[in-house]
Amino acid sequence: MDITTFTSKRFLISGSIIIVILILLAFVPLYAPGYTPVLLSSILMYIILAVSWLVFSGPTGYMSLAPAAFFGVGLYASAIIGKALPFAIVVGIGGLASFCLALLVGALTLRLRGIYFAIFTFGLVMLMAHSLLFWELHVTGTRGRFVMVMGYNTVYYYMLGIFVLLLITSYLIKHSKYGLALQSIGQEEDAAAHTGVNVTMVKVTTFAISAFFMGAAGAVMATKWTYIDPFIAFNPFYSFMPVVMAMFGGMGQLYGPIIGAAILTYLEEILITRFAELYMLIFGAILVIAILYLPDGLVGLIQKLWKRISGRKHAHT
Predict the structure, then answer these.
(1) Domain spans, the chain
(2) Which of 126, 135, 140, 253 is most buried by its number of CB atoms within 10 A?
(3) pLDDT tens, position by position, 244-269
(4) Is the dihedral angle over the CA atoms 159, 98, 244, 60 positive or is it negative?
(5) What's the pTM?
(6) What stretches of the chain show up as alpha helix (H) in DSSP?
(7) Which H/E stretch holds residue 63?
C-alpha cells in the first residue's frame, strides 16, 4: 500500500468518525434531555476556545494569552445589543467585533516575539477589564449588565454550529498555503520572510480568524449566564484554560485540544459539585502532574502506546 492510498483511507475513516459523532451530538437534546445539553455547551465552549487558540499559536509558536479578551468582547456584544437584534446577527456581530479587535491588536503587536507578545496579550485582558469597569462606574453609573436569556437547547445548537464551522475553517487553513506559511513562521520566521512569505499579514489574519470564533462563542454563552460584569467577561481564567487544555490534549493534532478540553471540563464539573472546597487544589495537582509527565499530551501518549503495541505485533509476526 503506497502512502497516498494510506493517507486517503485514513482521511475517509477520520471523516466518517467525525460525521457520526456530529450526528449523535445533533440529537443529544432529543435522547438526553436535562442537564446534558448544559454540560455539553460548556464543553463545546472550552473546545472552541482551545482549538481557536491552537489555530494561531500552535503552528507559529506565539503564546497568545488574549482568548479572554476576545471571549469577553463577545459576551458584552450580546449584553449590549442582544435585545435589539435577532440572535444569529448578535452572534455574528460578537464574532466580528473580536475579529476587528484582533486585527488591530495583531497589527500593533505581532512584530513582538516570545515573552513580550505573551505579556502584551495578557495585559490586553487586564486593560479591557479595568477600562470597562471604569466606564461603567463613572459614565453609565452601573456595574455589569443583565443579558437576554435563551433556552438551553438553543445555546447548545449554536455552540455546536460554531464548533462545526471552526473545524471546517481549521482544516482549510491547515491544508492551504496559509497553513504552510504558518508552519514556516513557527520553524524559522526570518527564513520564511526571505522566501517571500508576508509573515505579518499571515499572522495578523490568522490571529483575527481565531478571535472570531472566540467572540462568537462568548456572544452565545452570555445568554446562558444571565448577568455579566467586566471581571466575569474578561476573566484571565478563560485565557489560561484553553492553553492548558490544548497542552493536556496534545498540540500536534487538531483533535488534541478537543480531547483535552472535553476531559478537563468534565473533570471541572465533577470536582466543583463534589469537592467544592478542594476543587482548585485537586484540579491544579492534576494539571501539574499531566504537564510534567505528559509533555506531548494525551495524544502523544496514545501514539507512543500504539507504536509499542504495533512494534510487538510486528516482532511476533
Answers:
(1) 31-249
(2) 253
(3) 888 888 887 788 889 889 988 888 88
(4) positive
(5) 0.90
(6) 3-26, 28-31, 36-60, 67-81, 87-109, 115-135, 152-174, 177-194, 199-225, 230-233, 237-249, 255-274, 279-293, 297-316
(7) none
